[in-house]
Amino acid sequence: MKNSHHIPLIAIVGRPNVGKSSLFNALIGKRSAIVAEETGTTRDRLIASVEFEGYHFLLADTGGLVPQPENEIETHIEAQVNEALEIADAIIFVTDIRTGPIFADQEVARKLRSTEKPVIVAANKADNYNLENMMSEIYSLGLFDVITVSAIHRRGLGELLDSVLSKIRLPQEIEEAIDMPRFALVGRPNVGKSAIANAILDEERSIVSDIPGTTRDSLDSEFEFNGEKAVLIDTAGIRRRGAITPGVEKFSVLRSATAIHRCDVAILILDATQPATDQDLHIAGQAVDAFKSILVVVNKWDLIETDDYRREEKRYIYMLQSRFRFIPNVPVVFTSAIDKFGIDTLVKEALKLFTKRNQWIDQPSLSRAVTDAISRHLPPSMGPKGSLKLYRVKQDSVRPPTFVFYVNNTSRIHFSYERYLANTIREEFEFYGIPMKIEFRGKGGVHVIGDNRSKATARKRKLTKTKNPNAERRRRMNE
Predict the structure, then answer these.
(1) Given pLDDT bands bounded at 50, 70 and 90, which one contains residue 466?
(2) Taking the complete model, does pTM exceed 0.85, yes or no?
(3) Residue 70 pLDDT class (50, 70, 90 cuts)
(4) Which 3-state string (H, E, C) describes the chain?
(5) Final residue in a domain of this structure, among 341, 357, 373
(6) What residue numbers bound the domain in which 418 lies?
């Protein structure tokens, strides 16, 4: 067995109210964390996938460290940060350049000096250049490189990332490892993830026990199925926040969240003896947010007592479809890890999802499907803004499948019509369990049909005269 290719993890740490979440949001380009002038507003880690100048890495936001935790929340945050420090490849230590280092900063620095991980200090809130004369106080922390940044004004972000990435030793990856399918087993504790992993790998690598959380680490294993190689990531159970208890396995949640970002297919394990819970939906939502394919596996099917398993499967699938409405027609496999029932089907379905996630749709088929959809349901009028006009659609990339619509005005897109077009592509090309990206781009560029008045007018006249308007629209979209 050997590890799959590694995506570096960078953890953001620091005392409360220095702007860690603002920096996190600025670096990922989204407003994901709760940002407020109140101590402790980031209690749980957030993790995001980031690309910067050709490098792909994961960024984790953590809660604020205090020297002496005085309540359960502060203890919770300290354990979170310790977990992040343990598994991170590099650390961004955020300070407030306006206040300079205070006792809490010194305590964080003391903790970081004991780690062998690369540490970069982000002297945040340098909202004007006059504050840079405070740098000498930041250097008094006695370690680390220091970069001045302003998360609010997005100053120094590129320099910060350049500095961090220069200290990460990126692995020398062979092409085979990069292209190998990666499957992550995720789910609540005690649903049978390790038992399923052992059944797939045909070995007793993980500790299998009825005690929730006996798998504490994410384990990568390479295996072969019908001549096809893949990597299985077996993770600890993702616990409901209120159910997390102190101990070594308490914060393996980050490993599971990281595994979702590292995988191609998230295999969500459910317990057949229990209904799907809100936590199951939350885990599936994590995979959807990361644009990962999803396969639902209903384990412990051997414990279901019925005289008609086919009817029971249909009943369970109906329940899942009503609960997982944000993943239309998500693939479902029923298994018994103990009996190895359904294990081959599980692997086959996961490989299908990987192949589908990498599928390119030929342009004529894509254009025909979208043109027919437009003919069945014209874009709604947006009042004074006018109606949306779609000139062309193309598939822009895979992993995840990304489709770009070229339109006259992106402000005329109604969310219901965007969903209609996405559902059309999903149903026509069977992207079930595979989140897609749909983009709309305004008029312009060589891909736009009717980019000048004369050509647009000529085509409009031709379309009016044709006996088959749908055929003409298809011809235009294929140009």
Answers:
(1) very low
(2) no
(3) low
(4) CCCCCCCCEEEEECCCCCCHHHHHHHHHCCCCCCCCCCCCCCCCCEEEEEEECCEEEEEEECCCCCCCCCCHHHHHHHHHHHHHHHHCCEEEEEEECCCCCCHHHHHHHHHHHCCCCCEEEEEECCCCHHHHHHHHHHHCCCCCEEEECECCCCECHHHHHHHHHHCCCCCCCCHHHHHCCEEEEECCCCCCHHHHHHHHHCCCCCCCCCCCCCCCCCEEEEEEECCEEEEEEECCCCCCHHHCCCCHHHHCHHHHHHHHHHCCEEEEEEECCCCCCHHHHHHHHHHHHCCCEEEEEEECHHHCCCCCHHHHHHHHHHHHHHHCCCCCCCCEEECECCCCECHHHHHHHHHHHHHHHCCCCCHHHHHHHHHHHHHHCCCCECHHHCECCEEEEEEEECCCCEEEEEECCHHHCCHHHHHHHHHHHHHHHCCCCCCCEEEEECCCCCCCCCCCHHHHHHHHHHHHHCCCHHHHHHHHHHC
(5) 357
(6) 363-478
